[in-house]
Amino acid sequence: MEPKHEKYRRLIDYCRELPPLPTAVVHPCDASSLAGALEAARIGLIAPMLVGPRVRIEAVAQQVEQEHGLRIGDAPIVEAAHSHAAAAAAVELVREGKAEALMKGSLHTDELMGAVVKRETGLRTARRVSHCFVMDVPGYPDALIISDAAVNIAPTLEEKMDILQNAIDLAHALQFREVRVAVLSAMETVNPKVPSTVEAAALCKMVDRHQISGALVDGPLALDNAIDPDAAKIKKIDSPVAGRANVLLVPDLEAGNMLAKSLSFLAGADAAGIVLGARVPIILTSRADSMVTRLASCAVATLVAKARRESGQPVR
Length: 316
Prior knowledge:
Layout: H1 6-15, E1 21-26, H2 31-42, E2 46-52, H3 54-68, E3 77-79, H4 83-95, E4 101-104, H5 109-116, E5 130-136, E6 144-147, H6 157-173, E7 180-184, H7 195-208, E8 216-221, H8 223-227, H9 229-234, E9 247-249, H10 253-267, E10 270-276, E11 282-283, H11 291-311
Parallel strand pairs: 1-2, 1-4, 2-3, 4-11, 6-9, 7-8, 7-9
Antiparallel strand pairs: 5-6, 5-10, 10-11
Helix pairs in contact: 1-11, 2-3, 2-11, 4-5
């Protein structure tokens, strides 16, 4: 079994050679979120702008310096009285072209995403906003993208089109040699009584018609025959995806959340989190995330922003 975090460490090492990503860190008012941002800055992944109440940030900074030896240094603090104001101010930094990513601090995800999706002042694009976990699963040969396990609760077929395209685009930004998407359900045959199997089949036909592009896509597939070549062989599934998927599109948030947490708590996996479909990548971390997971999330955002710049997509 490979050493823990090996995929993340390769990712982080690669991104350390890139220019730091200008990042608005939203309300970093606890030790874990501020330490994650400052460590990412120390190793050159991000150039943080700390958005929130200065007095609270400076108090937490003293704790972080004592416990971790990390200093704010010359990172600017953008004053915002409370978490809602911090989210709005961070979004405005992006709209002004001063930040190319957002990073969640100690505020609730709904507060941050509420500011992001506001129609007049937010960061909407034509694409549906969705979340991806980039998972480092010990023993699995590839990094594994799971979507959507955090934002879209019960996506429609139309919304799944965007969720799938976001995940494919992420895989390309992460430089996957070949993107192989399994559209998951409880079974690998189309059953009209199980809507997720019908939607999986429809998504595959959309790929055939070039409505979705950039990947090999197959579904419906059950989890076992999506990731285990022997299971796919036993069930006689002839597919370039079955048994070797590196992107898993789940039917809904509940299934995705349980899958990701099962891998984390039963298989020792780590899950870097990123939100896509807005004007800039959004680094979505959890209070329970380890430092290496926080750094990996920053590295993922760095590659997404790099791909966006190279494609000529404007931040504003």
